[in-house]
Please model this.
Amino acid sequence: MQEKKKMNLGVKILIGLVAGIIVGAIFWMAMGADAAGAFTAKYIKPFGDIFVNLLKFIVVPLVLLSIMDGVISMGDIGKVGKIGWKTVAYFLVTTAIACIIGLIVANIFKGAFPVLSLAEDAAYEAKSSNLMDTIVNIFPNNAISPLSTSSMLQIIVISIAFGCGILVAGDKGKPFGDFITSFNEVTQRVMGFILALSPYGVFALMVWVVAAQGPKILGHLGLVLLAAYIGYIIHVVLVYSLSVKVFAKMSPITFFKKIFPAAAFAFTSTSSVASLPITKECCDDMNVDTEVSSFVLPLGATVNMDGTAIYQCVAAIFLAKCIGIDLTLTQMIIIVVTATLASIGTAGTSGAGMIMLAMVLDAVGVPPTYIGIIYGIDRLFDMGRTALNVVGDASCAVCVNHWEGNNNA
Ligand code: ASP
Model:
């Protein structure tokens, strides 16, 4: 019965996605991009926004409680450290590989990228972020404000600290631990109610994207978009298929089939964090132990962004070429390092990767204001990179699950 319900949700999301593309294309053909974009943004997108709002609302209690509960359920502090290191190592290695793939693909395409005579059209107000500030800001100076501002990295620090506190407190911590476990269970149920709405949310967002963005992907921007998507696909086929097969002893086909609802949702919502409830549901379906998924997935949704890393590398090479800079090998290495860090610092929300791109551009001397060149189609990059980010988190969860001696579906 439970199995049937999960399958139905995946199929319904797919139907929502396809129907959204068709209806969006009809709007675009009937009204033209500008009018269709304005109309759908006003009358159809708000239904998608309602759904995304509900997901954002549930995400803070979900991350806070599920990580705490995940830590508590591990039973001893040594195990938390063991799973933690494996997870972080997996995240870092796959993200660094993602950067290298992004750079190789972008360099292959580089010859076809244009040198532009620029242009006020690059009028983007870039917010460059300082690396040290990003690191310092992971640690909260207040227990309440991270919850009200949804600062996910800070919430993760709070959850791990309190989870470990409960374990170390032994018998005295047990009543609080039981309360957290119960609260977490209730939160999961509320999340289930919200998830049931996902096909409709996906439909509404997809109609809007297709109606508004259709023709803008032509020309040079289409080329850089293509480069990014080739990078995304190579990463999925090469890295995730292999890691799932080798480390999780799982058929990649099964893995991709089971993670599809989360990837489809991430593709339309462009938020790893908002996709978290669905990613968790898909991992449950793959028999990933709750103590693993409760820890790995919220952490991954916040720090593991392979798609974002690929995008940042491709975009950096593209924008450098646009303004006539030919990057050296040393600069490419700088890109790998900064894009890995920038993707970790990227929040799992819509458009965040583009803001952190400023940090990568800064590091190689490309003025971040030129992000304006690709600003208009960021959502199209974001859809693919978020789907990849989410699949990457799930691939880590199945690998860690296997390393911990559990069997995946
Ligand atoms: N939207 C992405 C995510 O939520 C982050 C990004 O903009 O790259 O994973």
